[in-house]
């Protein structure tokens, strides 16, 4: 069944939201906190060990009610059912969208074209588990009989960014295998990765859903040539495995059929890290941890599916984003995890959100007349405080922030962690409260130089009233990271539904691939 086709700007709630925006756009959040001492509690949500505090947003209960109404008018409930149920909601590619099936633990079948996909999902998971175990315990050996020390993931886009982000994000949980990623067609990238590797003890995982992507195939061929300087054609079967839907092409590369991990066309590249595309994650942290990662995502799926919109974390995340994007005219959002492990979260979310919702034609095939996907950017705290945060604090643009912090430090360095978290809270507070002229004056009074004070005052005043969401999570571990990523996936989905666009195709990415190949042929 198709998704409904509703122009959000024609709904009653959208019209109400325009009026409401005009009435409230200049209200300072400080006065909202003064009016309601329970604001923080009312605007916080708890999911397992994750707390989302969204009280520092330029919105009231009425705003949220209207936004929830908008979601209802856009038939979000029906869309969620179709999304989880295997309906072909990726209509432009005639495909279901079932990354949620990859972590599903319900007993119910999930049907695509009348066939339950769960047996195949579980079979592949079993295969990932068995393979991971053999590689990690050293019984699956390279061509010369030695166990593996290194794994190289060869892929790009969805076949690189997700696994790369998670392998780095969960580095604390890693085993003895060292994982590397080759993605760029830039020959220097692959050269740098292989230069210190031993072909005998390196396992190459070629990840390409289509097995036609220029970058991945070129890098795989280069690596194969390098490998064949020390090994024979027949040895490829020991050191190369592949993840793909294109079995024929993989076999032609020389990979043994038993070393091919399948995936399905109902998994989009940028949503595929839960499938065998995540093989390098499982190898790096062990299958047990990989399963915990899937379980965390599954738990968030259940929350998203079953919770009332007004208490639903991904729905709230999406609605807040729409409020700024479509009413305040914000063009971007910044995501700042306060952990160095999540350095690659922003590039991952950029693809997830911008490839999904970077669309300007609605589900009716018509040019949209309103803003859709926004620009996502970010990096880790506290580094960003010494860099781009200046613009977020005092620039001319309104840039909502997602701060992501963890209560526990993994290595347990309390001194560092207290300082890290003090910064986490201080940034949100500074954006929210700013600094008034009186406060600046008070600070500078000690100098006694009134002339200098008056001269510098305008530069040192901060208006504040800059919004942020605060995610506070107990600890960075496979389960919490799984939940966090799943919440961003569903946020993206909800936005696409409300913007009345198709979030699961990527013709913009494909055009580039096509043209580059044409130019090469000329
Ligand atoms: C993801 C995109 C894109 C894709 C890469 C790699 O949603 O479609 O980033 O993942 O282009 O494609 P292959 O896996 O087919 O090589």
Describe the structure.
It is a single chain. The chain has 522 residues and is of the alpha/beta class. It folds into three domains: 8-94 and 307-433 and 467-509, 3-Layer(aba) Sandwich (Rossmann fold); 112-289, Glucose-6-phosphate isomerase like protein, domain 1 (Rossmann fold), CATH 3.40.50.10490; 434-466, no CATH class. The protein is built from 21 helices and 13 strands. It has helices at 12-24, 29-35, 39-42, 61-73, 76-85, 118-137, 161-169, 187-194, 214-228, 236-239, 247-253, 279-285, 287-306, 313-328, 345-357, 389-394, 414-433, 437-444, 450-460, 478-498, 507-521, and strands spanning 44-47, 50-53, 111-112, 115-116, 150-154, 178-182, 202-207, 240-244, 260-262, 332-337, 375-378, 401-406, 468-473. The relative contact order is 0.14.
